[in-house]
Amino acid sequence: MASSKSLNMRVSVLLLLFIFCGFAAAAFSTKKRKTIEEINKINENGPYIGLITVYAPEETAFFATGAFQSDPKHPFVDLAGRRFRVGKVNNKKVIYVRCGIGLVNAAAATQNMVDMFEISGIIHFGIAGNANSSMSIGDVTIPTQFVDTGLWDWLNPNGTVDSSDFGKLDIGNYNVPRGDGQNLLGHVGYSTEQFYSESGDPNTPQRVIWLNTTSQWLNLAANLKGIRLERCVNSSFCLSEEPKLVVGLKGATANTFIDNAAYREFLFQTFHVSSLDMESSAIVMTTLSNGYPVLVIRGLSDLAGAQKGDNPIQIFGPLAATNTATVVIEFLKTLPNHQHALL
């Protein structure tokens, strides 16, 4: 009898679980259906320019400009844990999202953007480390190309770097005294990206080193040189020089926050990159793979380890984010209404 009661109790619990799961699935399905319906209504007013930034201080600086005007009927939609905000900047229709730090977050948010919304291109913006001694904190860079410096072949000291790798880091060269003895960390070879594209054959990626931003948008951005950027963190603390906008340099991306002078110098000397960040190459590659134009705007917030003492990103990050937002807003002004035809 005890055994029968135990079985009945287990069956009852299972039935309750099935009923609960059924209700939960129905509720989830209803929520998903409402989200899709909302997105369809938003898309009726498209196309939009997608705006993607990374983390809270960049978002705060962007909205603090007051340039973003929220759509009165459909101000936002929540999708895959992110809030996509709908509105206008300088009379250009935009959808804004904060992707989160790192390559995976950047690629996921970008793919969500191009899959779900009627867009005509993407502008990615945020702050970055500075690897170029001719640039200064507070400057803004709009690179022509990005390289992913996080795809490594990490080898033993006696290992041979693959001939297809486009860069090599011999860790033993950084022993102190220089070159003294063998470093067991060996060598790092920098691997190429596998670039999948709608214009290519399915499952046949190209091997690429550099990912190019859209030349037509770069040409428009070049007209912004000389734009006035903020020099002061506050009323009593200002940079020694006026920040500038530079169009046409190169940037590097990896899932690593660079705060090391030796590695900063290695990246600059090896790849001739000026900005270092953790998202741009993923957003550029995902956007281009789907056949849309893309531009990246990054404000320099720190020296990536070349400073004396602690990294100054906490001090200058908000200033760099403000200058970046200024350039984004001015670029949107110059973008013609037929922007979707610029790729």
From TrEMBL:
Record bears the keyword Transit peptide: no
Keywords: Signal
Nucleoside phosphorylase domain mapped to chain residues: 57-333
Matches recorded under Pfam families: PNP_UDP_1
Segment forming the signal sequence: 1-26
Listed name of the protein: Nucleoside phosphorylase domain-containing protein
Species in which this protein is naturally found: Stylosanthes scabra
